[in-house]
Amino acid sequence: MNIWQILRSIPSFSIFSDQELKIISEQAETRDFASGEFVLREGQSNERMYVIMHGTVEIHKKYDDKDFVVAELSVGNFIGEVSILGFDEKPMASVIAKTNTSLLEISKEVVARWSEENPKIVIKLFQVISLGLSRKLRKLNEEYVKIFMQTKGLGKISELRSLQEKLFKEWGI
To answer: What is the pTM for the complete model shown?
Structure first.
């Protein structure tokens, strides 16, 4: 399958026309990562987003000097999407390839070029990113309420710590 076909198969990319997908697939870069290789490191500068085209990555979050695998993402998911929105946000977690993984890399530079040459692509890309972030926030809110209700009245720190670790895994942070 070529890049265009992979993007066409990802539901989030259904809003793009065939011509827009052609431009994206020609101007974005493909990056391959071996199993165990870092894609992003927590706290280090990043100016690109990735779309998982093949393989699986793990999201690792450090907390109290411990490393937690808090999520696993596969084909169609985005990584680092906030970095291309114009903010100087550093990754809040590390991303490591769990399997040999192929990613489509969309840099801030490419997005800037598209904003001048193909603004509809940027508008649609930001819509896709916004929808994804909205879904993540909705899930986060649901989990927060669930955890809050479960911990209401609990006085033991160890029980709260256990719930906190579970929350990190479920939220994917």
So the answer is: 0.80
Give, in order, the Cα–Cα distances in Å from 106 to each of 66, 88, 111, 141. Answer: 31, 16, 7, 29
Rounded to 10°, the helix 119-151/108-117 angle is 130
In 3D space, the residue among 136, 124, 75, 135 whose CA is nearest the CA of residue 104 turns out to be 75
Identify any residues that bridge with 103 across adjacent strands, giving them in sequence order.
31, 52
Name the CA dihedral angle for 72, 79, 129, 112, rounded to a multiple of 10 degrees. Answer: -170
Which residues make beta-bridge pairs with 96?
Answer: 38, 58
| Domains along the sequence of the chain with CATH | 3-171 (2.60.120.10)
The owner of tokens 């084909």 is: 75
Q: Which residues, 6+ apart, have CB-to-CB distance to 110 below 8 Å?
A: 27, 28
Per-residue pLDDT tens digits for 48-106: 999 999 999 999 988 888 888 988 999 999 999 988 887 777 888 899 999 999 999 99
The amino acid at residue 102 is: S
